[in-house]
Amino acid sequence: MMHGTVSVPVSRCRSCLSAGRRIAALVVMAIAAGLLVHVSSPAEAQTEPAVSIPRDVLSAAVACRAEPSAPTVDRPEPVLVVSRPNAITSPDLITALVKAGHTVCALRIPSAHASADDAAQYVVNAIEAMAGVYGGRISVVGYDEGATVALGTLHTWPSAAALVRTIVSIAPRFALPLPLAPDPNPITAWYAKFSASELPAGPNYVAVLNNNDARNLAGQVPVPGVSRGHLRDMTILAVQDPCPLDPPERRVLDSVLGDPPQLPAEPVFSLAYDPVAQHLTIAALEGTPTAYPAGCPAADS
Fold first, then answer.
1. 272: which residues sit within 8 A by CB, 6+ positions away?
2. What is the model's pTM?
3. Which domains does the chain have, with CATH numbers?
């Protein structure tokens, strides 16, 4: 588990909850220990697919982190972070969210369940469990293929969408609009079946993009006066908006390599490592998605 994780019994967590004082730093930690199992209502069971992977297996993929010294009064809602299957969750993104006061639960989907259908079961289990323990709506931050799986999960289980306050998609992946060409990415190919459907009602939808990356909202990039199809209700933010002259690729590379520079344990190159993307994500969670950072990271920093 990540540094700062604390597991407590659900019975103790329940006593922490009150209308004006939710202690998410303790409450959500029960999820990582698999101490909460969501039980679907009969109506949900009739209209939504069953979860076939054992709940204890699903819960074992979640690790939570919070800042114990942060004020517990009016702490913002917990956040579930979803990366692509079998990928390390960006530690920079988690640190930024924790510093903003959130309890963060990172989901690492194992390679044995890397298919989109299996990955979605991990996401819906974590959403239901976190909302059940917290006693309110949570938020979700997905990036790369993880963002695509998170969106597809809400299409598959609309009841889970009602449990989500805001879903921020950092560099989501969608199928490139290439006619007669098969999609080589199984996750984007899986999501294509939802492209004719409206986004499920409930959450606020925000996308944080790199305008230089054709894989971001491919075929769905907003054009003035032209409908964006099923993504038309999504607020679109680009890291180039506040920082037009500072390439996000440079910032990502600096974050990944560190200071002094060294190769990471696993190859990563994601917009989730961009401090500007992290700032926009936190602003979106706070309900102020156009609150841009005062300045951009200096090229020589």
1. 83, 90, 92, 93, 143, 144, 170, 171, 278
2. 0.80
3. 10-285 (3.40.50)
